[in-house]
Amino acid sequence: MNKKRIAKKLLYAAITIFFVLVFNYFLFRILPGDILSMLSRSGKTTPEMVANIREMYGLDLPWYQQFFVYLENLFTGDLGTSFIYKKPVAEVIGSRILPTVILLGVAEVLAIVVGIIFGIVSAWKRGKAIDTGLLSTSLLLYSMPTFWLGMMLILIFCVNLRLFPINGMVTPGRVFADTWAYINDVVRHMVLPMACMALVMIGEYAITMRSTMIDVLSEDYITTAKAKGFSNGYVLRRHAMPNAMLPMITLIAINLGLIVGGAIQIETVFSWPGLGNLMYGALVNRDYPLLQGVFLLTTVTVILANFLSDILYEVVDPRVKSMGG
Amino acid sequence: MKDAREALVRVDGLKVHFEIREGFLSGLLSKEKKVVRAVDGVTFTIDRGEILSLVGESGSGKTTVGKAILQLVQPTEGAVVFEGAPVSQDREGLKAFRQNAQMVFQDPYQALNPRHYIIDIVAEPLDVAGLVKTSEEREQRVREALEQAGLTPADDYFYRYPYELSGGQRQRVVIAGALILGPRFIVADEPVSMLDASIRTGILKLMIHLRDTKGIAYLFITHDLSLAWLISDRIAIMYLGRVMEIGTADEIIKAGLHPYTQALMAIMPVPGQTREGERPVLEGETPNAAVEITGCKFSSRCPRATERCRQEQPELMEVAPGHSVACFPVQEEHRSSTEHIAGNE
Fold first, then answer.
1. Which DSSP state fits B298?
2. Which residue of chain B is at minimal alpha-carbon distance from A319?
3. Shortest alpha-carbon distance between residue B173 and chain A (Å)
4. What's the CATH superfamily of A96-285?
5. What is the pTM of this model?
6. Rounded-to-integer distance, Cα A103 and Cα A111, Å
7. CA-CA to B241 of 20 to 30 Å: which in A24, A99, B39, B203?
8. Domain residue ranges of chain A, discontinuous segments joined by +
């Protein structure tokens, strides 16, 4: 890819991010209720206190001034201060990134590997019993509500079988002998939410992989390869799979954005201290600066992941290079 | 033992039936399967260095015949005999057969893996079978194949991708890839129908040249009767999975006897001539191959169909040396005329 096209793509990415930014800003303010109504719920607030808080957060300014202050701060790298945590938004978000990336990263890798294998086997054995089995499993998983699956997993493995801890990332109040004991505890907490997330994504990957594989397998170069007497495994590895991976790259890129954005449902159900959980809390409390921060992070990740997948496409498929644009 | 008179390829009572995939649920629930009779009893032979054209409209099963000969689809019934030995489904037998029999497809845009260099595409059978030791040897073999296929200077094509070539050049790459193992038989499925008229001639000439110099036999699959006439030694006319008539190219074109052949002839344009009067044009559509037809497959559209045609399926019968027709009225005419001649003697 030449520099000019990279620059062009980056410019488009920046424009997209800006529009999402503006959209998000006003979207949250259209929501009914604000931080003041949340704070004054207790009934112990006096009108003077409300006025003070209003002034403290700059909420007494007209909406357009608030917006420009937000933009100005943003360009200096200041995401604002969280209403709830009373700390800079960047700091609050920063402490939540790692748990989310670990949880969803592992789930994603697992889902990609298993999903691709499911899809390939299904496509290769199209119409056979194994395809019917895998396809129905994938459809079932894909259409499964994440939160419900999470609750069922908790019910079975935590409540009935007592195999795993119910929620959180570490056992509260426990003192660890060494790092290994700590890792062990985290892994035990992570198994269920990770499995839940992976199961739901496996369906999506398997279905996509199956359908692109079926397309590719019907191409003449596959038949030609078979006519030349190459073994099935060779035809799959060398001809079918590399060509079927292109749509998967896009799908993976989109889902990579979700990793950082966090999975609200999973993290809420399992009380995983990640970004999704944070976003849920921020939304409930109308913590605009925090919400904006999390949304901004998600936006930038999704757009960057797409940008990367564009570049990766060219590496993987020689035809894209020649098409320009 | 190889019999000198044994044909290179003999197809004997070949049948290919496909089960129809129905909806997900009905597929699970119903035990009864619908069957498409893509090829329903086809018999013919191809000699060494001979070009046999298989002519038929789309849906007549001609491509399936080609694929079934190369064992790319599993024949339901019947045998394919190559050089006197039945082609087996076991690995070793297939491997040997596939060095000798290759396929060239209609669409050169689809037949080449878009992500591989030309040299890798052509050399792939060598690589997989481990037939070349050094890269010089590999390049030499690919160079020879590309040059035989008319791509010179061959080295210029080595490190190019298929998308960088024109349709004609791609088809030559496909042919080079088929030639690399030195086959004696090639199934060419509409090899020029996707190409511009100006490029077609080149590809056809190349195929005939390979026949003349290397003795390669072809099964040439086409829907174009005039093209079949131009390049083939013999022509077989196919309709709904059956061969209706088979004979030398000249005989089929000039003295085609089957009503279906005649209908195809009637719509074949003749240069420099304007046809006078009504042409017999076939009415209706080719029936659905999933519906079982008793009697002659063509009887529903045939102007000469009799009650017997609708009840019984006619078999090919030789009406002249090397010319066979599967049609009751034609066969009866032939019988009465030979009896007449015999009576006169």
1. T
2. B163
3. 12
4. MetI-like (1.10.3720.10)
5. 0.76
6. 12
7. B203
8. 96-285
